[in-house]
Amino acid sequence: MKKLLLSFALASAAACGFADGARWIWYPGDYGIWWGNNLQSHRLQWGARYAPFWPLYEPHNRVLFTKGDISLDEDEELEVRSDGYTTFCYSDDRGFHEEGVILGKVKIPKSTRYIEVKIQNSARPPSLYVDGRTVKTDSSWFATWDKRDFPWAECSERYADPSTPPGLVKLPTREKKPIWVKRHKGSQVIADFGEETYGYLRLLGVEGAGPVRIVYAESEPEMLEENYVMTMDGWEIIEIAPENGEFRREIPHGFRYVRVEPLDGNVSVGSVTMDYEWKDVPVRGAFRCDDEELNRIWDVAIHTLELTCREVFIEGVKRDHWVWSGDAVQSFLMNYYTFGDYDGCRDTLWTLRGKDPVVTHLNTIMDYSYYWFDAVGKYRLYSGDEKFAAQVYPRMKSLMDWAISRLDENGRPVDRPGDWVFVDWAPRPLDNGGGVVSFEEMLLVRALEATAAIARDVGAAADAEAYLARAAKLKSEIVPLFWDQERGALRHILKNDGSQPGEITRYANMFGLFFGYFDEEQTASVVKNVILNDGVMKIQTPYMRFYELEALLSIGMHDEVLKEIKSYWGDMLRLGATTFWELYNPDEKGLDVYAMYGRKFGKSLCHAWGASPAYLLGKYYFGVTPTKNGFAEYEVKPVLGGMKWFDAKVPTPHGEIELHVDGGCARVKGVRGTRGRLTYLGKTVEIDGDATVEIR
User: Are residues 453 and 500 in the same domain?
Assistant: First the structure.
């Protein structure tokens, strides 16, 4: 078998226009993992890089791409680009052949039946671009790293420029100037950029060379804090040797305020600016109503998401910079009603899952693994991405089978050594020293159901039956095992010794509501005895407030939830928030509003899970939800909930659904290639394709 080494380099290849249909392809999941690793390495703690404490996986450095069933009417010339050392060959009935290559041009005869391209790259995931009259790289190609598995290759509409492989694409930047710059204590420079932002700080008017300390802050008191230990994730000391009086920090940071402090007399700084970096994905969702405070809450939620949704979805831009499953799965739901960035969701799912072998729960947190399975199912529903289901299922199965191996002899989730039962940040630990937590068991049921649905999708019928049987058994045990008959709600935990502590918490009870796991009598009891009972421990984080409000909306309490959104998120705005926070407690005053984790400024003021009104409004007030994968079919059940009117758009893979709703009218414009159903004022009408329908 002859093989031809392609000697052309990316740098020497002439740029050409976008090809119709040709896309860069790579081994599924490898770019999600690679981008996630790069982003998570940006976290600073005490001025040093601080990597995640869970296992990180690497992309394959050698990948074989194949395309079979080729049928040509005539000889064809291909434009071949690759990122890495490349071997190209094609075959017909007589075997493999070589062809000459000039500047990336490969000529194949019409007898070609099969193409094989092997690429090696230790710096970035190997990727391939082929464009010809009929032969083009797309998701119909296969990829393998060991010739045992041949999943469909992964690709994206975002990476269609033949001159730039995915690993060399950079997010765009633009200059963002501060709203004020001041001198502080003589030699220091302080600045306010007016809102939470993200990007590359530039120092201007620099004279001399030497060390400077840069403090990145989300509040003005944090910027002025002299005890640097308290801002351990917001400062760094660097040596600067500027050219032409300017220095650009090449590591991006999230901040609103900065302080630049020269550390000796050999360097001075005149001013600062920054290059703002964002993911160039349009905001396809829209919302406006008669209530300006709600409009402002929507806008700030969008800004929060824009900052935390990068190549993959990170938790917060200043502090963690990590990819946490609990935060990400909420970001996905908000994203479905705002950006419609399905690539970002898919890449983040890959980042979180990593590769085999499985050695720990995602982020080491039991509930975060269970959320991930449900998030894969919801991604399939909203995006319609059939190829991803087939690509990801083997890793779903290996993670689920590992999670099952961690269960106790009764098949229930227990707190094993090394597993973190997180649930939520609360005044006391929520694992209660070990045992079966009702919340975890309920999440496991949901995870099993989601895995079974994907298994059915990809033809793994036996797996689907086994997972559904396990889910049904666990689900049937939840109420008998945890229900407190006297107080009419689920208890929080069954201790390892079989005893039942008396505590009732909100978590499993509210999830049971919107999962639909309670009957009518149990639902009424939980609403009365838990959800509307101020005697049960209150939730303070936007993370769980997201689910608490969803529980209320699932039982029709739209007016009450809208008031809560205006109160809780409106209070953050009244405190000067330009993005939504990791936690907000109305009882905290002064500098305490910035404190968390025992640190004076430990709270993240731009946190992915804080933007939940974007999802709550989209699903429960616009009332738009897919009922078949990819919005092939959907329903619209709008609710004003105290608004006089609203206009909205909801992104789908086919375009945007448009709504106008007021007290006497609901008007919806659908999108081509879909079928919908509008229900309003007790009436229902069908929406055929991009038709506009109205109920008065």
Answer: yes
Q: Which of 147, 168, 189 is the last residue of a domain?
A: 168
Query: What is the model's pLDDT at position 505?
Result: 93
Cα distances (Å, whole numbers) of residue 315 to 248, 339, 364: 25, 17, 16
Of 484, 513, 538, the domain-final residue: 538
Please indicate, yes or no, whether residues 601 and 659 belong to a single structural domain of this protein: no
For 472, the token pair is: 């049904």
Tens digit of each residue's pLDDT (9 = 90 or more) over 537-573: 999 888 999 999 999 999 999 999 999 999 999 999 9
How high is the pLDDT of residue 103?
55
DSSP 324-370: -HHHHHHHHHHHHTTT--HHHHHHHHHHHH--SSP-S-GGGBHHHHH
Q: How far apart are CA 186 and CA 526, in angstroms?
A: 61
Distance CA 666, CA 636 (A): 10
Q: Are residues 142 and 239 in the same domain?
A: no
62/70 Cα distance (integer angstroms): 24
Task: Report how many helices (DSSP H) and strands (DSSP E) the chain contains, helices first.
Answer: 14, 37
Q: How confident is the model at residue 5 (pLDDT cuts 50, 70, 90)?
A: very low
Q: Are residues 194 and 341 in the same domain?
A: no
Q: What is the pLDDT of residues 63-89, one digit of tens each?
A: 999 999 999 999 999 999 999 999 888
- Domain limits at 671? 625-695
Contacts of 64 (CB under 8 A, 6+ apart): 116, 117, 118, 143, 144, 145, 147
What CA–CA distance (Å, rounded) separates 547 from 612? 9
CATH classification of the domain holding 387: 1.50.10.10
| pTM exceeds 0.85 | yes
